[in-house]
Design brief:
The complex is a heterodimer of chains A (about 300) and B (about 280). Chain A has about 300 residues and is mostly helical. In chain A, about 70% of the residues lie in helices and about 0% in strands. The two termini of chain B are about 45 Å apart. The chains are: A mainly alpha (about 300), B mainly alpha (about 280).
Chain lengths: ~300, ~280
């Protein structure tokens, strides 16, 4: 996934091969036939909408009627909008809580599933399977599990003496509850990526360390963890970027509530457009969100590249 | 007992715990869906329904256009998968093999298209599709899913690992690029294409934000949207507390196709996630 230039030219190749290579890399009519439909879809349904968003963001427009040019007023409003600041904080809180716990959980599950014990294939299937379930179904299922009076979670917690928790209706608890649901729904991805990483570590590394007398924790600390560094970077990138986009969970589980406690940036953007019908303002929020996610993407990919070098 | 045996016992117990915790929510979903309405809510959880009834499934399919939503999801997902393969395989190949000016721009644009979710540009997308008259159409649901670089990166990455010599020999023999793509590259790229099919299927089957705003007619609503708006009920709405038996039945009917695809293609699925997995 990281940017790479063309394959390194090998000096062993003869001149004629190099010439063929150069010729084969030169674009011809087929290049554009092959790239055309993809480029077209990308420009029409991805790039264009953003240009439209930039244009609309300078207007006041309540879906009915005509857009009125108001300069950068929408952006100024965004800076002073308390609900926007709350959404920004919520998103930050969610990204940190979700990404950090999912990374630890994914690594833990991968270490467990990597051990040669019976049942690990079944366990892997069960850990990965929730990943294919839609956010709509995940949301309603966990609303039922989190149900404060009759939900199974509170029932079993009561058995070990934990008093009733208002999972999704308590402002302080709602966001962590969504993260808990994601421990079930999304842990499979990190687990699979870490498992592949673990299986990619050369056994010779462990053997060499063992002959030097290292055991258990020391092996993990000095062989496993450093070998998993690139995997961890990859997982951090994917987890932070996907949790930065969180929308469906809030829509299905909490409608952004209670009192805006689970209103993320994308949920705020959606409400501005489709509940409050403020298209100009929503477009400005779109532009800000895009800038943020592009900045996040570029920063994280730079980080990976410099870590890889 | 030896320390090694003790450690192994601990691992087995931990694994058993993981199995129980990860299976429980799905089993609870199925269990709830098979209960009589009056027995869904109970003081102590009843894992095995007594009696077992299909009433909730019957109600979900007769009182709501569930079959229609299911069909819509199938149409949209199949169209998305077929078009994604047709568009992304040639593009990924061209991207891997040609050097052209502006390829870095295409690289970043593709990358950003993976990273930016549709919920970030709902407004302009909605306005664009409204002006084209494509709201409430299958076309309108499919097109935005095609503007995504995931498949192109996947194919590009895979093609880059194929030695060029095969293709170069064919070029010297005078074969056109299209022939090479079809005869030489596609057969060798099948694992990546399978991954592409699985991930695009999942992305469209589970798509939520765009179908939510792009459809208002039951005739074109897909499962996640239809279920959420009409069966699950909106959180906190006092007028309509969720009917969990009915909801779980509809929910299970809607995830069953995805679960079957997952169980059948699990190996490819896990490989795809490990090597290139993005949602």
């Amino acid at each position: 996934m990281t940017p790479r230039g063309g394959a390194q030219e090998s000096r062993l190749h003869s001149r004629s091969v190099a010439a063929t290579r150069a010729a084969s890399e030169r674009p011809d009519v087929w290049t554009w036939v092959m790239l055309g439909p993809y480029l077209g879809s990308l420009v029409l349904f991805f790039l264009m909408p953003f240009l439209v968003a930039v244009a609309i963001s300078f207007t006041q427009w309540a879906i009915i009627g005509q857009p009125r040019f108001i300069g950068i007023a929408n952006y100024i409003r965004a800076i002073h909008d308390p609900s926007m600041l709350q959404a920004l904080w919520n998103t930050f809180y969610y990204v940190v809580l979700q990404a950090s716990t999912l990374i630890v959980l994914g690594l833990g599950l991968a270490l467990l599933l990597n051990a040669a014990i019976p049942g690990r294939v079944l366990a892997r299937t069960l850990v990965v399977m929730p990943y294919v379930i839609s956010v709509a179904v995940m949301g309603i299922l966990w609303r039922w599990i989190f149900e404060p009076n009759f939900g199974i979670l509170n029932h079993y917690l009561a058995q070990v003496g934990i008093p009733r928790i208002w999972w999704l209706t308590d402002t302080a608890q709602a966001m962590p509850s969504i993260v808990i649901a994601n421990w079930w729904w999304s842990a499979g991805f990190n687990t699979v990526v870490y498992l592949a990483g673990l299986q990619g570590i050369a056994p010779e590394l462990y053997e060499a360390a063992r002959t030097d007398g290292a055991t258990g924790w020391a092996l993990f600390r000095h062989i496993t963890l450093p070998s998993l560094r690139p995997v961890t970077f990859y997982v951090i990138v994917i987890d932070t970027i996907t949790s930065f986009q969180m929308f469906g969970e809030s829509f299905v589980m909490t409608q952004g509530g209670p009192l805006g406690a689970t209103t993320t940036l994308t949920y705020r953007l959606y409400s501005a457009a489709f509940k409050e019908l403020e298209l100009g303002y929503a477009a400005a929020l779109s532009v800000v969100f895009l800038a943020a996610i592009v900045a996040l993407t570029i920063t994280e990919f730079r980080m990976i590249q410099s870590a890889a070098d | 007992m030896h320390q090694a045996q003790l450690r192994r016992l601990m691992l087995v117990l931990l694994l058993a715990l993981v199995i129980v915790l990860y299976a429980a929510p799905t089993l609870w979903l199925i269990s709830t869906s098979l209960k009589e309405e009056g027995r869904v809510v109970s003081r102590t959880p009843q894992w095995i329904p007594n009696p077992i009834t299909l009433d909730n499934y019957r109600a979900a399919f007769t009182r709501y256009p569930l079959a229609r939503w299911l069909w819509n999801s199938v149409v949209v997902s199949v169209a998305t998968v077929v078009l994604s393969v047709l568009i992304n395989v040639p593009a990924g190949y061209a991207f891997a093999r040609y050097r052209f000016s502006g390829d870095w721009l295409l690289y970043w644009l593709s990358l950003i298209s993976i990273m930016v979710p549709v919920q970030a540009y709902l407004v302009p997308l909605y306005l664009t599709f409204a002006s084209l008259g494509l709201l409430n159409t299958y076309t309108g649901l499919v097109l935005p899913l095609l503007a995504n670089g995931f498949g192109v990166f996947l194919i590009r990455q895979f093609v880059q690992q194929i030695p060029r010599e095969l293709e170069e020999a064919a070029i010297v023999d005078g074969a056109s690029r299209f022939t090479i793509l079809w005869r030489v590259v596609v057969p060798m790229t099948m694992p990546a294409i399978v991954t592409l099919i699985i991930f695009r299927f999942m992305a469209s089957w589970n798509a939520f934000a765009w179908p939510l705003v792009a459809t208002s007619s039951d005739q074109v609503k897909t499962l996640p949207v239809g279920l959420t708006l009409h069966i699950f009920g909106v959180f906190g709405a006092a007028s309509a507390p969720p009917r969990y038996g009915l909801s779980m039945a509809a929910a299970f009917a809607s995830i069953l196709p995805a679960i079957i695809v997952f169980l059948v293609l699990q190996r490819y699925f896990v490989q795809g996630m490990a090597t290139s997995g993005l949602k």
